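[step 3/7] fold_predict: job queued, chain A
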Amino acid sequence: MVAISRQPSVIFMDEIDSIMSTRTTNENEASRRLKSEFLVQFDGVTSNSDGLVIVIGATNKPQELDDAVLRRLVKRIYIPLPDASVRRQLLKHRLKGKAFSLPDGDLERLVRDTEGYSGSDLQALCEEAAMMPIRELGANILSVKANQVRSLRYGDFQKAMTVIRPSLQKSKWEELEKWNQEFGAN
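[step 4/7] structure written:
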C-alpha cells in the first residue's frame, strides 16, 4: 500500500459512509467484498505500532457507518455548524474587498439570519448574493467595467436566501448531536 511505503502519510476518505455503510443481507457480493477488503487494509495500515499512517474518515451520516468501521475509527470528532462568531468570520472573509463590504449592522443581521447554515452553505449564499448586481445589468453586462458594478447590499442576501437554504434540516442536526453524545469523542 502506498501510504505505508510513503510514511508519514494521511489517508483521508470523504463521505466514507458511501462505501462503508452498515452491511445488510440484501447487499450485493461486490459491495460486501469491497467492505471486507477495506477493513483488512485498514487493519494492516493501523496494526504497525511504529507506523506513521493516520486514517481519517469524514461523513455527515455517522449513524450509517458499519459497526466494524466505527470500532476501527476510535477517535470520533464532531464538528458542529458554525456559531454566530464563526459565521461572522466566514462572512467577513468571503466579503472582503470594496465591492463586497456591508455596514456592520447589516453584517450582524446577516449573521443572525444565517443560523443553521454550514460553511459551504455560507459560501454558496455569498456567491449567489454576489451575482445579484451582475444580473441587474442584463444586456449592459458587456459594456460595464467591473468598478461600475454596484456594491453588494443586504437585500441581495435576502434574495439569495430564498434560493440558498441551509443544507441540513434541524431534525438531522439534532440526530447528529444525539449520535455525538453516544459515540463521539469527549
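[step 5/7] annotate
The chain has eight helices and two strands.
The chain has two domains: 2-74, 84-168.
exit 0
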